[in-house]
């Protein structure tokens, strides 16, 4: 027989799914929210997104090529995804040099210093974001007004910011309701905030797409949002004058963006559904604690990073249900 | 809701190309190579030597112990030599080469196609006949059937489960057998029930074989002791433990045999072989083999004599396709890639799958992105990514405590990994090493 045959162990077939497909599908799922932020914040949103994506990919290429001396893998889509998530987590008015610095920290420190895709303990985009928030607090919390808003101002406060300031100054929640956006505005995203976090509805649309394509499972987002809802709901029932009703917290800040797109980062979240439950509950609890009692109005970034840190521990102690076993 | 097993599982493309192809008798080969180890357990001892004349069905190698099986000649002719040659595993194995002359059967074998339903309800006599005929599990594991029918002291079988799942993609030999030899299989099932002294049998069939389900249901309509159970299509449902779970809801404990939960599992092919052994005095010398593949001209199901070279099957199916990249003995999930078409069909060969070159090559492995899909699909509830890591780093105690020995090697993890990581390759490595360590500890 003249033919050369391949000899390899079973299995001899493979799913058509791949890392690249997963990454590109998440990017696709984020597209509607990106379109919304361009609608809200105009060309600034395009500028920030492009800068973030291009510089993340460029830093990944340069570091892999010249420092790590390996074949650059920027086509796998993970650097682009980090870029888009970083852009989604900053105000659209952010100066260009700051977002480029954020990209360098996200890719260089958050991802490649640990060995690249799959080895980073913390979500790279959030590492970049938190670095920027702590280093450039003014620029990172100056929220541009939507180009469709009727008010004559350059910056405004986020709903969570208004709430935090109000409660801090001793006002009851009921007195603040007038200055907060209505339920419908919160749902489709007519408010100020980070670029990609404002439209809960479009972020949920992307979630539906990712579930349909089996990119992620429902577990982490549902557990995170469920925990926020339940914990905030308990606080609200105990003292409605100090704590706002729970749906407000689901629709504001980075709750949706964080729960659906950041907490679900595969590399930094637990492997088993049981572990994911613990992880997601932790994110929900810490988020509510920071939002209500912490110094910052928003805390889901910190919550995710803190639980990222627990992921290896969860993976080693929370085992899946074994077949024919008692645990 | 159709029944199925709970933990894990995947659904690869079914590709049952030969499902509507009736079983054909393959022409007699010119020569055969019959390995003396075609089963799990001790190899048989050859009884013939060069120059001996043999008939079809003649005992040519005697079982080499309790867990072993007789080997019979599948052809008539002259023994050319007793020598080593590679089988599907790729390793040279002892076997008997026979040049085929005519087709002369042993007189004791009933060769007619008539259905013989009556039998004496004598457990021991049935098991003896199965033993003498060299019947082994035809689902692939080739465990000697008579051993399975004699549970260890203190264990009692409550039920027989017949495996008609055929969850491997491409393969259709069991499917065709159920359609064409349903009545014989039913007699075989009754024989097995009698041998085990149980009064309940289930036949598990996946729902992609609706015609087989309907046909067998029709045949057992009057008999409430045999129940046909349609199952949701999910790989690896044909795994013994998964099938028991799907049909009865019971879980075989880690490290235990199915008998621990009162079940004995046999393949439909085995039930047919039992029928032929007991009712026709016919040893296991031929079986149904699917020859299939996307580029194969005529995907078919052939009745093939044991020892026939794979080449004969390939020729009968229209020759080896131009774009062949891999030839698999068995199906694509658990089959073995073979290096040569001279490899013989043995008792455990359920099919030959020919893969086109583009599908035959593995993708380059990428970094694990820790998506956890291998954990989700593992039907044994293991963590393949972790077992791969500890096997790679040779941390054998961790591999053992994380139950590497529970792995059934179904390949769902490697199949599903988006980073193309060869998880099962490493887990096999770990299993081998940990198995060695456990055995040396017992000494």
Automatic annotation (TrEMBL), chain A:
Job description of the protein: Part of a membrane-bound complex that couples electron transfer with translocation of ions across the membrane.
Subunit structure, interactors included: The complex is composed of six subunits: RnfA, RnfB, RnfC, RnfD, RnfE and RnfG.
Species of provenance: Gaoshiqia sediminis
Family under the similarity heading: Belongs to the NqrB/RnfD family.
GO biological process: electron transport chain; transmembrane transport
Topological relation to the membrane, as annotated: Multi-pass membrane protein
Pfam families linked: NQR2_RnfD_RnfE (PF03116)
Keywords: Cell membrane, Electron transport, Flavoprotein, FMN, Membrane, Phosphoprotein, Translocase, Transmembrane, Transmembrane helix, Transport
Any Gene Ontology CC annotation: plasma membrane
FMN phosphoryl threonine modification, residue list: 158
UniProt cofactor(s): FMN
Residues passing through the membrane, by range: 22-39, 45-63, 84-109, 186-211, 218-237, 243-264, 276-294, 300-318
Broad EC category: translocase
Database matches in HAMAP family: RsxD_RnfD
Coiled-coil spans in chain: none
Gene designation: rnfD
InterPro entries associated with the record: NqrB/RnfD (IPR004338), RnfD_bac (IPR011303)
Main location group: membrane
Locations listed in the record: Cell membrane
Protein known as: Ion-translocating oxidoreductase complex subunit D
Enzyme Commission numbers on file: 7.-.-.-
TrEMBL record, chain B:
Annotated PROSITE patterns: 4FE4S_FER_1, 4FE4S_FER_2
Any one Gene Ontology BP term: electron transport chain
Gene3D superfamilies in the record: 3.30.70.20, NADH-ubiquinone oxidoreductase 51kDa subunit
Binding site for [4Fe-4S] cluster 2: 378, 407, 410, 413
Assigned keywords, A-Z: 4Fe-4S, Cell membrane, Electron transport, Iron, Iron-sulfur, Membrane, Metal-binding, Repeat, Translocase, Transport
Pfam family, one: SLBB
Cellular component, GO annotation: plasma membrane
Domain 4Fe-4S ferredoxin-type stretches: 356-381, 397-427
EC numbers: 7.-.-.-
Requisite cofactors: [4Fe-4S] cluster
Subunit structure: The complex is composed of six subunits: RnfA, RnfB, RnfC, RnfD, RnfE and RnfG.
Biological role stated in the UniProt entry: Part of a membrane-bound complex that couples electron transfer with translocation of ions across the membrane.
The family this protein is said to belong to: Belongs to the 4Fe4S bacterial-type ferredoxin family. RnfC subfamily.
Record-given protein name: Ion-translocating oxidoreductase complex subunit C
Gene name of this polypeptide: rsxC
